[in-house]
Structures are given as structure tokens and as C-alpha cells.
Design goal:
Radius of gyration: 24 Å
Number of strands: 0
Oligomer: single chain
Distance between the termini: 40 Å
């Protein structure tokens, strides 16, 4: 075997070994979570995390997680928040991208740069002022206030829409306007239907973030008996005397199931949206 083939073989082994190791690291927490979810409290306390449960039909953890964490209410609140946030975020983000891309006016470049600058600021650094605003408006412990807060337009979403608008010829707008269509008509009747791939991409990015949001949900929805979400519901199984990880893992699996079902049913649209709606360099 010559030197070139040997180097190629070594590089192939390293490449696949790295991929296998990365896959193992990614899957291991999920495997541990599944194993722990089917263990009784006594079995969990007396075995290590990789020991398989005695019975895979032990579902008491799931029942207790569903009841004690009030997950029915958590799913209802999360679905309401998710639907409202996605609708208004996509609407405002696409309209803002339409204005910035199609209309040239003084300050257009400045606005784009300010959005980019805002994305560089850590969100935690602005929470003091944001909390004061929310408190002054009476939106603490308010589902409406939390939805308004989460509807803040995502900078990445704006740039995804802008990039997609740049691939749509302006002649479509001009032809519609010559036929008597207004700017709102051009956007809603012609351009918005063409943004389907970009909308799917934004829904994935924004939806995953909103569904898994814990910090702001815990900070602004302080009444956990009324305004619990799927991300904060499992907090009931933590305390100063220890954490009930068997219930937590069961609850984690329950919260993962809706996202997994949506992904399985819509994976073709998701992959297509990511491929067509992603920002291209």
C-alpha cells in the first residue's frame, strides 16, 4: 500500500471515528433518560444510570409526572404561546423584511446594522430593564404579556426573509402594481405564498426556541399553578432535599413526544424548508 492510500485510509478512519463518537455523545443522554424513566424510585436509588430497568412496562413514573407536574395545563399553555408567537413573529418579520428589501429610503442600511448590533447583545444583560417594563405594564404573571415579550422579532428570521426576498424578482411587484394591486396586495397575495420555504425554516428555529424556553418562562410566569409551561412543569420534581430524576426523565420524554411526532410527519417539509429557506452565502 502506497503512502497516498495509507493517508486516505487513516483519514477515513479518523473521520468515521469522530462521527461515531459525536453520535454516541449525542445519543447517550437520551438513552440514559429513557432507561431512568422506566425505573421505580427504589430501583433508581439502588442502581447506576446505565443499568437496564427490570420491567419496561413500569409506567407509574409517566402517570405521576403527568399528574403532579400538571402537564395537561402545561401543554395547553405552551400550544397557545407557540401558535400566537409563531403567527405574529412570522407576520411582523416577513413584513419588515419586505420593507427593508423592496423599499430604499434613508436609514435602510442603518436599521439593518442596528438589528445586527442588537443580535450581538446578550439577552441576560437586558433583563433588568425588560423586567422593569413588564412590571410597569402589569404583565408579570400574564400569559398575554409573555406572548408579547416572546413575539420580539428574531434578527435571524429577518435576515432569512431578506435573503429569500432577494431571490424573488422585483418584476413580480411591478407587474402587480401596474395591474392595480396595492403594496399590501403585492405582499399578501403574491410574495407571502412564495415565502413558504423561508416560513418553514423560521417556524423551526423560532418554534424550538419558544417550546424549550425556560429562563423567561420561569421569570415572568411566576404562578406555576396557573401559568406553567412544558419547560417549567418539571421544576416541581426538584427541591433542596434532592431531585426526583425518574419523574423528571419521564416528563422529559412526554415533552419530547409532540416534537418527535411533528418531525416524523413533516420531515419532508422541514428538510425542504431548511434547504430552500436557509441563508445562502
Amino acid at each position: 500500500m502506497n503512502t497516498a492510500k495509507l493517508k486516505k485510509l487513516i483519514w477515513t478512519i479518523i473521520k468515521y471515528a469522530t462521527l461515531i463518537f459525536g453520535a454516541f455523545v449525542s445519543v447517550l443522554p437520551v438513552v440514559v433518560c429513557v432507561i431512568t424513566a422506566f425505573k421505580s424510585p427504589e430501583e433508581y436509588a439502588g442502581t447506576n444510570v446505565m443499568t437496564l430497568p427490570k420491567s419496561w412496562t413500569y409506567v407509574e413514573n409517566f402517570v405521576q409526572a403527568w399528574k403532579q407536574a400538571n402537564m395537561a395545563l402545561a401543554f395547553r399553555n405552551s400550544i397557545i404561546i407557540l401558535v400566537c408567537v409563531l403567527f405574529f413573529s412570522i407576520l411582523t418579520g416577513s413584513m419588515l423584511a419586505y420593507v427593508l428589501n423592496r423599499f430604499k429610503f434613508p436609514g435602510n442600511g442603518l436599521i439593518r446594522n442596528l438589528f445586527l448590533f442588537a443580535s450581538l447583545l446578550p439577552g441576560i444583560a437586558m433583563q433588568v430593564s425588560v423586567y422593569q417594563i413588564m412590571y410597569s405594564l402589569g404583565w408579570i404573571n400574564s400569559l398575554f404579556g409573555y406572548i408579547v415579550l416572546m413575539c420580539g422579532t428574531d434578527v435571524i428570521s429577518i435576515y432569512i426573509f431578506i435573503q429569500f426576498f432577494e431571490n424573488i424578482p422585483v418584476s413580480l411587484d411591478e407587474a402587480a402594481i401596474m395591474d392595480g394591486c396595492t403594496y399590501f396586495g403585492v405582499f399578501f397575495r403574491i410574495l407571502l405564498p412564495l415565502l413558504k420555504p423561508a416560513i418553514v425554516t423560521v417556524m423551526i428555529l423560532k418554534g424550538v426556541g419558544v417550546y424549550n424556553e425556560y429562563y423567561m418562562a420561569n421569570l415572568y410566569l411566576q404562578n406555576k399553578n396557573k401559568f406553567v409551561t412544558v419547560a417549567t412543569s418539571l421544576f416541581k420534581f426538584t427541591g433542596p432535599l434532592g431531585n426526583q430524576y425518574n419523574y423528571i426523565c419521564a416528563g422529559v420524554i412526554l415533552t419530547m413526544l409532540p416534537a418527535l411526532i411533528v418531525f416524523i410527519l413533516c420531515q419532508k417539509q422541514i428538510y425542504g424548508g431548511l434547504a430552500q429557506g436557509a441563508v445562502k452565502g
